[in-house]
Amino acid sequence: SVHYRGSEGTQGFQEAVLVQRPDKARLETLTLLGAILIVTVNADQIAGFHPREGLYLRGKSSKENLFRYTRIPLELHEMTRLLIGLPPVKNSADWQITGSSLYRELNGQGKEIVVFDLTREVPIRWYRLGSDGSPELSAAFDDFSSTPAGLFPAKITLEAQPQKRSLEIVYQEPEVNVEIAPALFVQEKPASAQEVPIEALGR
């Protein structure tokens, strides 16, 4: 279940989420009558199909186009990490340790911080700070449950503080490290659908 809050108002809906790191995702917005939106994204293309309206939108895979559909202000490789319960950060050698946290400077443009629960050895908070030290993005990972791959956070909350946006995802029945057919991350235009430029979604 997904709950979004922003300047456009609030929304709540059910979503089926398939993720394959680092650059593939499929999101289906569901109702009792079936999917009302299917979004697929890979390294090359993002596509959205609106079955009720018979509309098909596609564009290059970019942070801007990804935001049009997901309202998540992250690059694709960052979003796929977030959706599987990991902080959307790079593995690099410049991380430093302080207490129960790791932090790294972002070339003078701010800082990233990851906070861990040392007892369970899992990340529970992530922050991206601007050059003035104010928070730009943050994520919280909660409600951990055991899976064959280890602890998984059933609840993920992303906040974009300057824009006053938040996205809360609560997973039900997560399956981790399963095989997913590559074809599920690609959508061709249905013969009966009308194609519309993805820019029609605005920003």
Detail the topology: elements first, then pairings.
Elements: E1 2-6, E2 9-20, E3 24-31, E4 34-41, E5 45-50, E6 55-60, H1 63-70, H2 76-83, E7 96-98, E8 101-105, E9 111-117, E10 122-129, E11 135-147, E12 150-160, E13 165-170, E14 194-197
Walkthrough of the structure:
Strands 7-8-9-10-11-12-13-1-2-3-4-5-6-14 form a 14-stranded mixed beta sheet. With 203 residues, it is mainly β. It has helices at 63-70, 76-83; strands spanning 2-6, 9-20, 24-31, 34-41, 45-50, 55-60, 96-98, 101-105, 111-117, 122-129, 135-147, 150-160, 165-170, 194-197. The longest helix is centred in the N-terminal third of the chain and has 8 residues, at 63-70. The chain has two helices and 14 strands.
